[in-house]
Amino acid sequence: MLPAGSRFMAAMTVFMAATRTGTAFVARGGALARSLGGAQQVRGFRATASMKLKTGIVGMPNVGKSTLFNALTEQQAAQAENYPFCTIEPNVGVVAVPDPRLDILGTINKSQKVIPTSLEFVDIAGLVKGASKGEGLGNKFLANIRECDAIVHVVRCFEDSDIIHVDGNVDPVRDIETINLELALADLAQVEKRLQRLARDKNVVPAEKTALEKLVKALDAGQAARSIALDEEEAAAVRGLMLLTQKQMIYAANVPDTDLADGNAFVDAVRKFAEEEGSRVVLVSAQVESELVELSGADRAEFLGSLGVAEGSCGLPALVKEAYELLGLRTYFTSGETETRAWTIQTGWRAPQAAGVIHSDFERGFIRAETIAYGDLVECGSEKAAREKGVMRSEGKEYVVQEGDVMLFRFNV
């Protein structure tokens, strides 16, 4: 048997030879197959990674932020001690996005591997009042979450005299306002700095200057950048600033296990605040998530059931669901004997764009996409049955990919 490196080079040689002769290829589950009647699999060719959702975790010190991070990522990278600023260096963890549809597709197609899409969490030091001016440690690490797609703000919604609160008492809305103001002030400093540079620039783009002036006025008033109406040209002009308050916000209300099912008065206050600003709220219990790490699938469901909570309604699955909805993301699948894999795309993407997430050649040489809705494939039980029933469709370049589509791309490069 050839070594892994030799197998990869052999596969690439076959791929390049077919490319030169203009042979059409079929892309299924990360593998390539020549479309010559009975398609022969070409193994060893690795597709590029799918879009990875990156989420920053922020919060006041001692709200359970690092405990939650450790539980969600099933590791102990982040210190979780009972004193302010116990997280000193930013911690990064990558988790598989839970999706029960993957295992079902893998069973239908007898896949050798099942590969979920992934979510990256970045946990930074706790933020305090004055962080934008250097107080505490959090401001030092704000740059680590500028490249994130969304922000999860962990809010303390529990009383515990043994756990110190930096402001002396529990008030989740006050904590939210403190963090949001610090994020806005950090953005304000960045926008003002950019405006100063534009003043010396002879080739100023009018849309950028207009957008920056709007942002300065709003941020100076403590408003989030995402609340400001910018036209398409203005938004594009300032996108490179990666403003923190431009990102979508999810409030993770950290509650004791007894309140995980229905919440409490603290959670009610957070929900009211979030509704007014158009954000989302997810109930989490860092305590429960830490215990779930040690349990198997059946035991997890039983444990959550004992708390009156359905699996998937809290914690990581709920965070993923809210993040996908806020960011306008969809999941499609490729599935075959080699592997079943989930891919993340933007809502509204057409088939060639979706193919490009697997590999740029798939988009460049796109021909068509053989497509089955997930529900139809499960109902039929196999691709062969789906084809016989006429529910497998051949879609062209203008097709807008739907949530849960199972796709087989044909391309020619």
From TrEMBL:
This is Obg-like ATPase 1. Keywords: ATP-binding, Cytoplasm, Hydrolase, Metal-binding, Nucleotide-binding, Signal. ATP binds at N62, V63, G64, K65, S66, T67, V255. GO terms for molecular function: ATP binding; ATP hydrolysis activity; GTP binding; metal ion binding; ribosomal large subunit binding. The keyword Transport does not apply. It is found in: Cytoplasm. It comes from Tribonema minus. Gene3D superfamilies: 3.10.20.30, P-loop containing nucleotide triphosphate hydrolases, TGS-like domain. InterPro entries: ATPase_YchF/OLA1, Beta-grasp_dom_sf, G_OBG, GTP-bd, P-loop_NTPase, TGS-like, TGS-like_dom_sf, YchF_C. Pfam families: MMR_HSR1 (PF01926), YchF-GTPase_C (PF06071). Residues 53-304 form the OBG-type G domain. GO terms for cellular component: cytoplasm. PROSITE patterns: G_OBG. Residues 1-24 form the signal peptide. The keyword Hydrolase applies. Hydrolyzes ATP, and can also hydrolyze GTP with lower efficiency. Has lower affinity for GTP. Belongs to the TRAFAC class OBG-HflX-like GTPase superfamily. OBG GTPase family. YchF/OLA1 subfamily. HAMAP family: YchF_OLA1_ATPase. Monomer. NCBIfam families: redox-regulated ATPase YchF.
